[in-house]
Amino acid sequence: MSHDYDPEWNYVLDRRPPPAVKKLVDQAKREHGPIWKALGFTKKPKFAYVRDLSEGHLARYVGGTESEPVFVLDARAIARAAQDNRVDLQTAVWSTLLHEYGHAYVESVGLHDDLNPDDEEEIVEKFAHTAWEDDWRVTYALSELNERLGIPLDQVVG
Ligand SMILES: [Zn+2]
Q1: How far is the CA of 59 from the centre of ligand 1 (A)?
Q2: Which of 4, 23, 59, 115 would bridge 120 by S-S if both were Cys, CB 3.0 to 4.6 A apart?
Q3: What residues does each domain of the chain span?
């Protein structure tokens, strides 16, 4: 099962994202395999840089692409947010990615439609925070996420 979703259908691509952000996303692509696996992504996610995310979004998971998750990133907005919040760029980029992985996961376990958007935001943000802040404790963060989503442990694969 796959899809042929192209971010250009909905977004304006950013052909020249800030190199420092791109470098960290490229690093994530090399190092995030274990977390993608833990989250049950069966195919490598795709990432696209875009310029026009609305409402102050830094990134989005493109709903419905769970078979091969697609994430769109506003690299300039991420760089600005890092500066505004005085966090280092890697924290900004990776915690943004983790947050979006959380959205993809929530959809893949079929709970996106059951959660109200604010609750989903809070749950995935918490996941991103735990996974990143606490020494990359992805397994622990995932177990917390499942608990918040009410998914019994014995149903969890990976
Ligand atoms: Zn979100």
Answers
A1: 8
A2: 115
A3: 7-148
